[in-house]
Amino acid sequence: TYEWESDESIFTPENVQTMCSVEQEFFGLGEYPNFCQINGTTLQCNQPTQTVTHQFYGSIGSCPLLSFESVNATATNLYNNLDDPKLSFFLGISTPSRSPMYSKFSRSVIQMGAPLEGYVSEFDQQAEQDVDYTKYYEDVNDRFISAFNMKSTWLESAYRERQERNGLRVKWYSSTMVDIESNIIASGDFLLAIFSIFFVFGWMTYQMKNLFLSTFCMLQVIFSLPVAIVVYRYVFFISYFQFIHILVIFLVLGIGADDVFVFYDGWRIAGNDPSVLKLIEEGAPQEVYLKKRVEISFESTVGAVFTTSFTTIVSFLATGISPVMPIASFGILAATAILLNFILVCTLVPAILMTNHIWFDLGQRPCCSQEEDDEVDTAEAEALKGNDSLKGNDTQIGDTERNTERITEKNTETNITIESIPRIKHAHSEKKGIELKEMKEGKETKEGKEMKDMKASESGMEPQGERRRSSVHIGSQTDIGRSDSVTTDIEKKGAGGDQKSSAFELNPPDEKEVGVGEAKPDSSLDKLMVYGYYPMMTYKWKGQFVIAWGLFVSFLILGIIGLAFAVRLGPPDEPEQFLPEDHMFAEMSDDLRENFVPGDLSSFVEVTIPFGLDGFDRGDFNKYEPGKNRGSVKYNENFDFFPRASQEAFLFACNLARSKDCNQEACSFGKFAHPSDDAIVCFLPLFQTWFASRNPGLSTYNCTRSQFMSELQLFRNATTPGISTTDKQKLIGFVSDQLKFVAITVTTSIENSKSTVKKQDARLDVADGLAGQINDIGPSEFGMTTAVAASSTWVGVEAELGIVAGFYQGIALCFPIAFIVLFCNTQNIIISCYAIVSIVFIVGCVLSVVVWKGDALGVGEAIAGVMVIGFSVDYVIHLGHTFIDAMHTYHMSPRFDRFTHTAKSMASTVMAGGITTFGASLPLLACQHRFFPKMGTLMACTVAFSLTFSLLFFMSACLLIGPVGPVGDMSWFMEKGGCADYLRRIGIMHSHSKGKGTAKLEEKGLAKEGSEQAAKGPAKEGSGEIAGNETNTSSKSPHDEQKHQPKLAASIQHQSDAKLKDERAAPADIESPAPDASDVVNM
User: Fold this and answer.
1) 1003: burial class by Cβ within 10 Å (0-12, 13-18, 19+)?
2) Predicted structure pTM score
3) Where in this protein does the record put region Disordered (predicted)?
4) Which residues span the domain enclosing 514?
């Protein structure tokens, strides 16, 4: 297209010469004769009649400067024939309204030929022909870039710059060039994945505080991508890969890092499991207790990682059943990548964690000898024997002769207290020479001082410099996950020395004893959750959690509003654009619609009505290779066009197409066909005239069959007025010198810019109705009853409707599966209902953003709408599982206790995973390809809404409504039905008689503090203890008596609903938020 810079006529001698020179850039290519339309008679390129060059110069060639009179005469002829679509084609839309008339716009169209030399038809080996066309247009692209001196930069296509020549703005467009440019842009956008990798790597390093772990865990995530592609290509035999599949990289980065965080936390927490500590205490070999630690890590994390991975895989597989192949292939690749990432997390990450623990936590690198460590062990053992300050109080541990130390850490989540743990000497721990020297010289070590303090405390004396603390707390899961575990501490300190900090440890743990003073969260997210989120949610005013109630109601309203907007989402009104809005190719569609005289037939839907076809045999067609083996046409064996009845039926069809009414909104003129004389291409009347001129006295009705067929074949290849050779070759189908089909072409009054729904209505009501009427009157014995109204536009309509259908199919599949997964994971119907309602609201809010932006339900929205279900499950399922596990593991019955445990032990992990995915999506916003910024926005919105609804709506519901105790649990229902005992025996249902943690502590005989604390009564305010009126109700089940298990020194006390009503507001001192007495669980 051409646009003159001033508001004057574009048709001046200089401008016409400029337009001619621009078009010569195309015609001047040496390969143009091989791709142009061929004149059937001369076998030379046809003159491009729809070009400015042909209108003003008469032919392509040189571009001399024409006289003003010549240019003005041609322009006047165009103005005077506005009713002729062939001439008004060159004029701007405002031309008729101006007096005198003039146009500041003009345009040209160059038709290319098909098939190429060596091919039978344009559909013969179409993939190979497409390759030849693409190479040609690559040359065209290079030539135009060179002619206009265009420069591209990264993330800035040359086509986004305004192109002018002599003050004339020039734009050009080709669908093949669009594909070429899209691939170039996608290649540049792909490099932005590097920034996502750096962000995820940086965030992973910050969270883990360990460069070794973050590096190799990041490599594990990245490694899952090429493996997934290999499986996708050589196992599923899918070779289709386009720009849409690049999105998988950004998705896997976020999801993979989330899985690593969960497993990492599980590994750190497993180091403090009593069974692991027991093995170390008993002097078990390193491989034995490390194996146990890995087993516990798997038990606590693999289920959660599998559940979240499974729901995400299901959401992508739901897109895999889409009838739109690109979306389906994307879903398959994404699901494959998530599955392989899960497998690698379960296999490689444990090995990475184990290697880091042995090499850097314990200092046992394969390159270093252990002989020196063994010598130090022997010397230190001798020193310990003579150090009275390190002798333990044997009365605290019965008959044991081992020295003990007090290990104190504060558990801000569950307030579980453990009085003392035997101090372990590990044979392979690296030693510090400083404390060893102190012991040899008889100096008091840190451990010795602690033992003195213990004795002083028991005798009623205050240790110097410290406040007496008679209750000690094991650190929370979150705190432990962010610092050295008890296991590692014991291994390091077992011989009296601390381990040297690893070079890979970016933030070595503080050497200060955790239990002395206040234990503070280690990471910024932990601090945010403990000092910000938790006090905010538990703030009370007049006995009510006012902020929690406000958030619950606000997000309930927001979710309903989001759903109301989401239901408005529908298919797009026009074909989806993927290039930037300021890109030349994207602007062209707007120019053609807004700046030129309407009536150009190219802006309306073209329909072909064939006779003689019986469908299509796809055979070995592979939908993932759309350009290959597309199949073959099945011809009607009864088709015969020679009989008079067949010819008359064909002419009836031409006349019916012209007169067919159309009252649908998509039709512009009240008729199905466009009113232009060229709207209907019906070759038979032209052939009959041509036949009569060549055969005087004969007609197509009274000639012989051989005459009819031979003349028709000559007519098909000859250049004749009124119809192009290209059109005739499409409409008259000779195959191996046999007439197999004939067809009519109808340019309808349905504009391409009309919405998908409107075009579909016109198709079903008018186009299909027209074909039905034609078949009703056609002679079936001659195969004239197989007419269909076919159009490439219908393919686009079906694709867009397929996107919508696939979206709703995915929603219908994912929501029930998500609910089942949630219920199986939490085994609580109430929590599952909270979670599924939260997910519904999240999906509604994400899709409402699409409506707010003015977008429709396109490819990106269809993927995101289903994907968000799998993503949002990841957040609520961790919180819901932790809330339920607070009772099953720690016997926390009141909802306040369980909320506190969940908020402090899981909220920061959920937030960390959300930040990873959110950050991985941000580089997408900088991409040129419009699909990627759209998906980046949808991914970011998904994470944002998932985090806010899970932490503020879902958690508010748990805090305010419950459940309390086992209400809503599967066990609760089974108890009512009498099936509970059986389900417990076969391991399907949780047991409420004893928490997992309680059983483990009872087994190890580690819980003694509870009985002592109960005997002492409430502590004085400010003593560092938590006041409470709990009593020690230690008991033993008959099963335990039979097994002769050690006696439990302190039990976990159930809380009643009545006591829950008396919950006090959290104190103002958020440094150490303490719940009221009913919220305390002591051991």
Assistant:
1) middle
2) 0.73
3) 373-403, 439-519, 993-1083
4) 371-523
